[in-house]
Amino acid sequence: MVNVIGLGYIGLPTALMMASHGIEIIGTDYNKELVKTLQHGHTTFKEKGLDELYKKAVDAGILFTTEYQIADMYIISVPTPYDKKFKTVDARYVAGGVEDALEVAPEGATIVIESTISPGTIDKYVRPIVKKFGKQINLVHSPERIIPGNMVFELLHNNRTIGADDFLVGEKVKELYASFCQGTITVTNIRTAEMTKVVENTFRDINIAYANELAKICREGGMDVYEIIRIANQHPRVNILTPGPGVGGHCISVDPWFLVGDYPGLANIILQARKINDGMPRYVIHRISEIMKEENLKDVKRVGIYGLTYKENVDDIRESPTLQMLQRMDDALSGGLVQVYDPFIEKDIVENQHHNLDSFLEAVDMIVIMVGHDEIKKNMDKLKEKVIFDTRNICDFSGVHRL
Ligand code: SAJ
């Protein structure tokens, strides 16, 4: 039996996927409300294919509880925030999850950590806890790689990395994941698995920073960055990502800081990339002011910000570029309050938030597309009379303003 500890964005789909492939799973979370919701037939966030997977897992007998279980294997999938001041990983939840597992784990059990951690975290924070308990426990790191918006597909198809102290234990864990994962599963040591995960997200951050820098250079030089990237990417060894209003989410905007925090002085390109991407919301504000002048728009209250989530078609607002932008906007746009709308955010989280596309559009003369949700793509015709600032390059009307 496998006890999945932490039923959030990663733990829940993983637990459901394993259960629906015949593995006996008990999912544990200390959040009583969350467990209650899962016990009462509902998932806790929106994700393509998650509800269907949930039904299959429930039919297969998955259980949800706040209690930690006696199991052969534990999968820890808890958040790993980063300490904003020192730019290092905050391993509090991982350490807590491991401790909870160790309280009940039998001798010889395996603890798999799926949460993203900086290289060395297991040595520094997890091994001392295992030592304290004095039990023979196998430690494994199997970092998650699934992308919000396509998690279920990626769980099934992505390659995986498994880091273990003991190769045979690694092979045993590989067998478990292979019950549903159709990708290649590579077994290596723990330190390599930790580093590989952070390196992957950092690679993407640097690539996006390059695209964002190109966007600024092309604006200055009067060139079309999107056409340039499209043509450059026809080269067989070039693959530049897409400029955008900033990098949000709990992964790409966080993980590179682990390397900057742990290797100051060495992680130079990584630090610059972070600064460029973190500077994008400010750049968007600057572009809004420019466009308002150009279009002779004076009333900031008639500017509408479309999209609050960190990217398209998810309901996740962690490190969202729009929220970062709104925080800075008041001073920059001399106090006026913009209108805001996102179809995925039902609760009121910012001022002047609308809950319906049409009423939002009625209230604005200019719309800033911060997120390319399918909803706005389908309703693009409704924007015909507006001044449009499209930070995602999804609108092909003539006269549309871009980054
Ligand atoms: N973004 C751009 N331009 C792009 C791509 C993304 O501006 O060309 C922005 C997005 O709008 C978003 C942010 O970057 O604000 C991050 O989005 P994302 O879709 O690139 O990635 P995440 O954070 O949703 O998921 C990433 C993935 N990592 C990689 O692709 C290397 C995923 O596979 C990981 O599992 C996830 O991080 C994680 O949990 O670590």
Could you please describe the fold and organization of this structure?
Strand 5 and strand 6 (88-89) form a beta hairpin. The chain is globular and about 70 Å long. The chain has helices at 11-20, 32-39, 50-59, 92-104, 121-133, 151-157, 167-177, 190-221, 225-232, 255-262, 268-278, 280-294, 321-332, 357-362, 374-378; strands at residues 2-5, 25-28, 63-65, 73-76, 82-83, 88-89, 110-113, 138-141, 160-164, 185-188, 303-306, 339-341, 353-354, 366-369, 387-390, 401-402. It is an alpha/beta fold and 403 residues long. The relative contact order is 0.09. Helix 1 packs across helix 3 (50-59), helix 10 crosses helix 11 (268-278) and helix 12 (280-294) crosses helix 13. Strands 3-2-1-4-7-8-9-10 form an 8-stranded mixed β-sheet, sandwiched between helices. It starts with a strand and ends with a strand. It contains 15 helices and 16 strands. The mean pLDDT is 95. The site of ligand SAJ has 20 residues, from helix 8.
